[in-house]
Amino acid sequence: MQDWLAIIDGLLALSFPGKNTREGRQASGPGFHMYVLQASRDFWDDRSEEIIEAAQAEIGTAFKALATALTARWGEPQTINLESYLWSEDQASEPINQLCQLSGEMYVWRPPGASRWVALAVGQGDPELPIELLSAVGEPIHGADQPPPHFEQVKRP
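-> structure tokens emitted (157 positions)
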């Protein structure tokens, strides 16, 4: 857990590059960083329900633990619906464009004193690929206290 928090802190402080780059578990570009904090095995050889459910549970538990730690630091997150970005006529900016192809929703925090937002999501590119715990950092588009344009909050009952 402490390693993940250190990675997120590092992404918050790291300058954004002028062009898209990918190295290991990190993707970065103008205005964003994205990092795969944890990944399950892939499912090319075995897509049995038991294997997939175990991987989902492991990544889900990690997500909940990290979300709890980030909430203790920065307060309650916004839950953002990412599915609408898939069907939008306008392509979303990064990292939203990547995240909406991997996940249906993300949690977003705005750390006090930081001009950037931090997101946490669980995603999977295709059924054969690993399930991933993802963190993203982005720069604000219209101010540190506002979500990026087109963020659609999930309404909870």
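Confidence is low (pLDDT under 50) at residues 142-150.
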